[in-house]
C-alpha cells in the first residue's frame, strides 16, 4: 500500500509528474514578470510591446489551478479513498493550510509592493476539503457556480475592506476567495481525470484552448476593456463613469479584463491554465530521460513552489528598490533556476516544503 505524503507533491506512485512541475515553474516565473518585469498594464495583441501583459492574472490562475491538481494527486488521483485514509488526508491538508496562511502573513509583513497570494491559497486548501471525494462533474458544476458568483461577491465584499490599506486588501480582496476557489476546483477535476494519461493530456489542451478562446471572444465583443481600466483595483469589477445599465452589467459579468473577476475572466484564465497543464504534461511526462533532463531546470523550480515564491519576495524586501524591467526579471529568473537546480540536485525537496511537512507532522 502506497503511503500518501503529507506535503502537496506532484508524485504519482513515487514518480514525479514533470509536466506539472514545469507548468508550476511557468506560473512562478510569470508572476515574477508581473512583479519585477515591467509588464504592460493591459494586453493588446496589436501592440507586441504589450504582449508581456499576458502574465497578469493568468500566472496566479495557473498557480491556483495547479494547487487543485496537487490536492487531487495526493488524495487518490482518479479514485479518492474512503475512511479512514481520506480523513488523514483532510487533516494534513488543514494543517498545511494553517501553515501556508501564517507564512503568507509573514511575507506580507515584509512590506513589498507585491500582493501576496498565500493567505488566499491557504484558505482555499481549507475550503476544498469537503470536495475531496466529489465526482468530476460535481467539481466542474461547483466551479461554474463560483464563476457565476465571482463578480457579485467581489463587489459585495469591497465595503468590508474600507480603510484596510494594502495589507488588508491582500486578505481576500485582490485574490477573491470565491473566484480562486473556482480555479482550485477545476484543478481538482483535472487530477480526477487522470492527468498522467496521454488521451487526457491531449483533451486538456484542446478543451482548455477552445474554452479560453470562446470566453475571450465573447468578452471582447460584449464588454471591450475601457480606456481607463488601468485605474481599476485588481480583483474587483470596474464600471466606467457614465455607463448605461446594460454596459455596467456587461463590464461586471463579461469583461475580459485581467483580475476583473467576471465570468469571462474566470473561465478564460482557467481555460488557459488547463491548456498549459495539458501541454506541459503531454510534452514532458513519460517521454524518456532526454526530455527529463531538458525539463530539469524548470521542473526543479516547480518542485519547490513555496520556497521560490517566498524567496523572491525576501529578495525584493532585502535589496534596494529595483527597476521594473525585462533585465531585472532575467536576473531573477536565472538566479531562481540556478538555486532550484542546485538545491534539487544535492538536497532534494525545497526548504520551505520540508518545513511545512515537518510542522504538519509535529502538529498531527
Briefly say what this structure is.
With 364 residues, the chain is mostly helical. The chain has helices at 18-36, 58-74, 85-108, 118-127, 136-157, 165-169, 177-192, 198-222, 245-254, 263-284, 289-302, 305-318, 326-347, 351-363; strands at residues 11-12, 15-16.
| SSE order, one letter for each helix or strand | EEHHHHHHHHHHHHHH
Strand content: under 5%
Helix proportion range = 55-70%
The separation of the N and C termini measures 21 Å
Strand order of the largest sheet: 1-2
For the residues shown, what is the average pLDDT? 92
- Count up the helices: 14
Category from helices, strands and their pairing: mainly alpha
Low-confidence stretches: 1-8
The gyration radius over C-alpha positions equals 20 Å
Describe the structure.
By secondary structure, this protein is mostly helical. The protein has helices at 18-36, 58-74, 85-108, 118-127, 136-157, 165-169, 177-192, 198-222, 245-254, 263-284, 289-302, 305-318, 326-347, 351-363; strands spanning 11-12, 15-16. A two-stranded antiparallel ribbon has the order 1-2. A hairpin with a 2-residue loop joins strand 1 and strand 2. Helix 3 packs antiparallel against helix 4 (118-127) and helix 8 packs antiparallel against helix 10. 48% of the residues are buried.
